[in-house]
Amino acid sequence: MRTRRPFRWLPLAPATTLLLLFLAGPVAYCVYLAFTDTQLTGQASASFVGLDNFRRAFGDPDFRNAVLLTLVFTVLSSLVGQNSLGFALASLMRRASRPVRTLTGTVVVAAWVVPEIVAGFLLYTFFNRQGTLNEILELLHLPQQNWLFTLPIVAVSFANVWRGTAFSMLVYSAALAEIPQDVTEAAEVDGASGLRRFWHVTLPMLRRSIGTNLMLNTLQTLSVFGLIWAMTRGGPGNRSQTLPVFMYDQAFLKSLIGYGTAVALLLLVVGALFSAVYVRLLREEV
After folding, report:
1. CB distance 30 to 261 below 8 Å
2. Helices 257-285 and 207-222: crossing angle, nearest 10°?
């Protein structure tokens, strides 16, 4: 007969307490704020407003614009940029010599470990009117422009790709190293071309790594704030104002804490939907 051990969860008590105190507590407080009209200044006391903040968000054209730009930013910089470039680098580095692998890995990882705000200022100087990109185009006798004004969402997407590709490269490098060499050699002996080996051998064995990488990259990209703020502050106008920037603008610049918190919860829901899709796809692969 199984004996009960009433104190078997005692070792987990400190960690559980810290999670409740520093994670669950603030999240619960944010949920409460989202249903109030709390402001930073000019308000004696906050009152409960129910779903008014959420109705205001869905009726706000600036919020809808932020949702659209967030999706564009996520697709360009995470689903397409970081994922594709990281996989390409990992594949090419497998066939490169050791010095080339070392140099490439050092350069790519160096961009990843640079603080987000520093990376934002570096890429600001690259895309600025008097920046490095226009200097290169001038040397090539190509037309120049103020990229942060004409294509701001593309500029910040490229900046996020430059900074975050190293994570995808490391994930795919580890996954490719786990593929048995005899499997690819057997496919080659059977006459499969390089493209067929990639599509029918390599890709199926990397599906779980691809799904995990996409999920982590997407969640990280949805929360990018410092990079965009340093480069464009969501401008010009609101042409690069993703949801984190919009939330900051509403909560701290316009002092609408309740409304800004409601936007933050909606951003959390967007991240949860992406995660649910990826988890469902991963389960189907089991």
Report:
1. yes
2. 180
Which residues fall within 8 angstroms of residue 197, CB to CB, at 6 or more apart? Answer: 184, 187, 188
In DSSP terms, 48 is beta-bridged to 36
Instruction: Give per-residue pLDDT as tens, 99-146.
Output: 888 888 888 888 888 888 999 999 999 998 888 899 999 999 888 888
pTM confidence score: 0.86
CA distance 78 to 227: 14
All domains in the chain, ordered by first residue: 52-116+153-285 (1.10.3720.10)
Number of Cβ atoms within 10 Å of the Cβ of 229:
19
Structure-block tokens of residue 21: 């105190």
**Rounded CA gap, 76 and 228, in Å?**
14
Tell me if the bond preceding 236 is cis, omega within 30° of 0.
Answer: yes
Looking up tokens 């307490």, which residue turns up? 17
